[in-house]
Amino acid sequence: MARTVILYALVLALATAALEWLEWHRSMRALSAEIYIVLLAVGFLGLGIWAGRRLTSRPAPAPFERNQAAIRSLGLTRRECEILELLATGQSNKEVARSLGISPNTVKTHVARLYEKLEVQRRVQAVEKARWLALIP
């Protein structure tokens, strides 16, 4: 019984494949010009995009300019700006302290002052606001 079912399924699958093949050949003959035109258009579109990207000069990014007016208005010190830059790199308080040669408690104090001056509660908020104000790159 199983052998008959498998044989019947195989014959039906082959017949379906043959019909699909015949239909594909008929549609290729009827639509061959349109298909070739579409393929050429897609090819030329890709070539145009590639050539445009290769040949068009891109302006160099402008160098970062720190917003000195915002630094003065917030009352940030040079050390607080240094600590803010190091916070933006994702360093911990201990790593910032090692980088600057100061104690971790001093870093905590500077970070607390930064939070007050920037009116934020977290490091991520401080970094986001500093980037928005162009205090750090």
Low-pLDDT parts are none
Residue share in helix: over 70%
Assign the structural class, choosing from mainly alpha, mainly beta, alpha/beta, alpha+beta, or little secondary structure. Answer: mainly alpha
- What's the number of helices? 6
Report the C-alpha radius of gyration, rounded. 33 Å
- End-to-end separation in angstroms reads 75 Å
Work out the number of β strands. 0
Q: Can you describe what's shown?
A:
The chain has 137 residues and is mostly helical. The protein contains 6 helices and no strands. Helix 3 crosses helix 6, helix 4 (93-100) packs across helix 5 (104-118) and helix 5 (104-118) packs across helix 6. The chain is elongated, with a radius of gyration of 33 Å. The model has no long low-confidence stretch (mean pLDDT 86).
Which features does this protein show?
elongated, single chain, 137 residues, mainly alpha
Provide a quick synopsis of the model.
The chain has 137 residues and is mainly α.
Strand and helix map with partners:
Layout: H1 2-55, H2 68-74, H3 78-88, H4 93-100, H5 104-118, H6 123-132
